[in-house]
Write a structure and sequence with these properties.
With 169 residues, the protein is of the alpha+beta class. The chain folds into two domains: 77 residues, 2-Layer Sandwich (GMP Synthetase, Chain A, domain 3), CATH 3.30.300; 77 residues, SH3 type barrels. Helices cover 31% and strands 33% of the residues.
Length: 169
């Protein structure tokens, strides 16, 4: 991280945290006469567009207040990490509970399964209808798999259980 990026990180991390989010990544690149400031934020519950707007306003305010920390015109981009982010820390895995992932175990071939739980000691995933638990030392960098049918199936299962019209008197 460059000195300028570190200075911005030190300025923005408490601002983002105070807004209820985690500063995941920050990059600054030249874009003509301006600088492009890319900020990635997240929470355990994920972030929606309203959250991105909130974070964008507080970051912009902090940058505008502290001209000395960031001199010159800039373009600010605030986003979530996205589904293609690497899963490297327990907090990343906690955010992926319920999602289909692919992860190498003990440096071997990746296994694909659904994340059931992630705590400080163990990652638990369902692989081929069997629950498997792995200590973090054996877990490689995971990737979420894009699924189009899982969300639909999950919503259908929950709506069948919660629909009061289906209940008999």
């Amino acid at each position: 991280m460059t000195a300028r990026s570190q200075q911005l990180h030190d300025l923005l991390d408490p601002v983002v945290t105070a807004a209820g989010y985690e500063l995941v990544d920050l990059t600054v690149t030249a874009a003509g006469r301006r600088s492009l400031v890319r900020v990635t934020v997240d929470t355990d519950d994920g972030i929606d567009l309203d959250g991105v707007a909130v974070v964008s306003r507080v970051i912009s305010g902090a940058l505008d207040e502290r001209d000395a920390a960031f001199a010159g015109p800039y373009v600010l981009e605030v986003s979530s990490p996205g589904v293609d982010r690497p899963l490297t820390e327990p907090r990343h895995w906690r955010r992926a509970v319920g999602r289909l992932v692919s992860v190498p175990i003990d440096g071997g071939e990746p296994v694909t399964g659904r994340v059931l739980a992630a705590d400080q000691d163990v990652l638990t995933i369902e692989v081929a209808d069997a629950e498997q638990s792995y200590r973090w030392a054996s877990v490689g960098t995971g990737r979420m798999q894009v699924e189009f049918s899982h969300a639909d199936r999950f919503e259908a299962e929950n709506s069948e259980q919660d629909d009061p019209a289906d209940e008999e008197d």
